[in-house]
Amino acid sequence: MALFLFCKSPTGQVRMTRIQLVLCCFLLSLIIYFLQGHKAAVNAKLAPNLFRVPGKERAVTHAMVVKSEEVQTPVETTWGAPLVWGDKTSSAWYRAKFAQKEIRTGLLVLVVGTYARFIRRFLSSAEVYFLPGKMVTYYILTDSPSFLDPPIELEPGRLLKVVPVAELPGWDRLFYRRMSLLADTIRNPVGEEVDYVFCADVDQEFVAPVEDEIFGDLVATLHPELYGMPRNAFPYETEEASSACVEEDEGDYYYTSEFYGGLVSEVYKLARACSFLILQDQANGVAARGLEESYLNRYLIDHRPSCVLSPEYSWWDSALAANVPVQRLVSLGRQCEAYDQQQKERNRC
Questions:
Q1: Quick check: 231 and 238 in contact, CB under 8 A?
Q2: Most-buried pick from 33, 228, 335, 338 (CB within 10 A)?
């Protein structure tokens, strides 16, 4: 776009006066400024967010906020619960507090279908980095026990127990059953054998120490792509017919379903409540857009966690992911989605 003002000289030549030239330059500058600003606004307006579930992605758009290079690392939530960054002084204090306590912890994972290929890598990394030196029992809910042959060698004080589950083909079917399976397993045998239990997606890898700083009555982990975002960017369920619906004036953080836990009694309450809401929506022909994660966030709004883990404890390489000081638990599933075929083979996706 351009704008020109002309006048005729006595000889008939068309030329611009000095005033007209200044005016023209001024108007042209305004036009360029407007176009650049408009382009920036368009580029920043929308960004896709994927609710990732095994074998099924649902695209959701939300307002994108440009994040600063340096992530903020507060050590407390707005309601006074610890917000955990592994290398902070407060985390060292928690490790010292629990160091002398005899605590047995359960790590509960659901391993079905093609996701069985991740189990050995998950367990091997957990042996190195998950509560090293502590008593840990791995509870593997699986329809493919053969993937654990030959058995993985465990450190002293560590146990592995297989809990057989029926084959659940298709993620939709698994979505409706997962929380129910977790609740049943936590009630028995987990509840009779451990003090704390953490639920994790199997397509993850521990890459740095995850120690006693994670203990709390009810523990949730911040979603790495939504940490630092304003409340209106959180993809809560907004459909009023869903039991997972969140009102506009509700919610403090957005939590990931990749890693959460706490006291056995508290995690059992969480899994049982979420299972009830999911099955209630299923009976009414409704499913929250974020599936299990939507119901988890609904529960954690009503029952604020006593300990919140930073995105260090659930991270993957993404343009939207927070720049954390240390990556401790990395999602291979979400990471592999961004790889080409050669990268997938190189990283054993």
A1: no
A2: 335
Task: Please enumerate, as own/partner, the contacts of 35-38 that have beta carbons within 8 Å and a separation of 24 or more.
Answer: 35/1
Look-up: residue for tokens 């939207």? 320
Taking CA atoms, 126 is separated from 108, 136, 151, 154, in Å, by 12, 10, 15, 10
Taking residues 244-258, what's their average pLDDT? 95
Crossing angle between the packed helical segments 264-283 and 171-187, to the nearest 10 degrees: 140
Give the angle subtended at the CA of 17 by the CAs of 15 and 20, to the nearest 5°.
110
> Which residues are part of the catalytic machinery?
293
72-91 pLDDT, tens digit per residue, is 899 999 999 999 999 999 99
What three-state secondary structure class fits 15?
A: strand
Kindly give, in sequence order, each residue whose CB lies less than 8 Å from that of residue 121, ignoring residues fewer than 6 positions away.
205, 332, 348
Provide the token pair at 34: 């407007």
Q: Single out the residue of 179, 171, 125, 116 nearest to residue 149, CA to CA.
A: 116
Q: CA 306, CA 314: separation in Å to the nearest integer?
A: 18
Phi first, then psi, for residue 51 (nearest 5°) are -75, 115
Q: For residue range 100-138, what is the model confidence (pLDDT) as tens digits?
A: 889 999 999 999 888 899 999 999 999 999 999 999 999
Tokens of 169: 């083909």
Residue 84 in contact with residue 309, Cβ under 8 Å? Answer: yes
Question: What is the maximum span of the chain, computed from C-alpha positions, in angstroms?
Answer: 104
Cis check for the bond before 150: say yes or no (omega within 30 of 0). Answer: yes
pLDDT of residue 303: 98
CA–CA gap between residue 170 and residue 43 (Å, rounded):
36
- Residues with Cβ within 8 Å of 276's Cβ and at least 6 positions away in sequence, in order, are none
What single-letter amino acid sits at 90? Answer: S
Question: 6 burial class (0-12, 13-18, 19+ CB within 10 angstroms)?
Answer: exposed
Lowest mean pLDDT among 18-32, 102-116, 135-149: 18-32
pLDDT tier at 314 (50, 70, 90 boundaries)?
Answer: very high
